[in-house]
Amino acid sequence: MSRLFEAQDVTVAYGKIEAVRGVSLAVEPGRVVTVLGANGAGKTTLLNALMGVLPARGAIRFDGRDLARLPVEERVAAGLSLIPERRELFATMSVEDNLRLGAFRFRGRPQEGGSLEAMFALFPRLKERRRQLAGTLSGGERQMLAMARALMGRPRLLMLDEPSLGLAPLIVAEVMRTVADLRGQGVAVLLVEQNARAALQVADYGYVMDGGSVVLEGESRALQADKRVVETYLGVL
Ligand code: ATP
User: Fold this and answer.
1) I want to staple 82 with a disulfide (CB 3.0 to 4.6 A). Which of 108, 159, 204, 233 is the partner?
2) What is the side-by-side order of every strand in the sheet holding 5-14?
């Protein structure tokens, strides 16, 4: 299978401390790939480096093109999108206006961006709340709006940083179902999660990070059965 996205030997340092050390990973088209790991393993740092928010060493290729030296906006134009842990919505704007801003990169040619109708079909809850201010949404609704807004920009690779953070289990399941739905729409997903149980249920493939490096990788089913993963990440609910 061709590789849509590939990172090779990526290293990120804060001053003298390397928070990510020699990480390599790949995402194939239409696949959900997860990066698991405990607090401080380097997951957020890795995503920020892939998006170009943080400088990094190593190769980052998308569709055969080397993105490693390109600024964030050019990576967005190439089809990358990152939803940070903080979700970063415009709190004093309505759900609908937040969505419209998601298609900002298509200004002047809105027909190329995602449509509000398509987002409302994917997230019916957002349709009910289309005129509500984003800052008044529940945590789960906010995560859904963050995903819908990112999708308005028609990314080919959507990177999510801990979408389950702070959400009740039922809402986590809903968010993960939506992630699985994206596969059917041809969007590849790189999902960073501490909630290994939920992430491995939806992902096709996973990487486990510890101390800044990938210590284990494999098909989700194999990881779910791996003794080290079970003991370290799945043992307690
Ligand atoms: P969490 O799940 O808690 O967000 P993580 O796996 O995403 O953890 P990172 O946030 O990437 O981990 O942090 C990796 C390491 O880098 C940690 O030791 C952290 O303290 C350190 N770190 C993160 N940001 C900075 C920064 N701006 N300056 C210095 N060190 C940092």
Assistant:
1) 159
2) 17-27, 5-14, 57-62, 65-66
Tally of CB atoms within 10 A around 81: 23
Assembly ipTM: 0.92
Q: Tell me, what DSSP letter sits at residue 138?
A: -
Would you say the CB of residue 41 lies under 6 angstroms from ligand 1? yes
Distance from Cα 128 to the centre of ligand 1, integer Å: 37
CA of 228 to the centre of ligand 1 (A): 23
Distance 212 CA to ligand 1 centre (A): 9
Q: What's the CA-to-centroid distance between 210 and ligand 1, angstroms?
A: 12
By the 8 A CB rule, do 51 and 80 touch?
yes
Separation between Cα atoms, residue 7 and residue 35, nearest integer Å = 13
Q: In the chain, which residue ranges form alpha helices assigned H by DSSP?
A: 43-51, 72-78, 95-102, 116-122, 124-128, 139-152, 169-184, 196-202, 220-225, 227-229
CA–CA gap between residue 146 and residue 182 (Å, rounded): 14
Whether the CB of 2 sits within 6 Å of ligand 1: no
- Whether the CB of 194 sits within 6 Å of ligand 1: yes
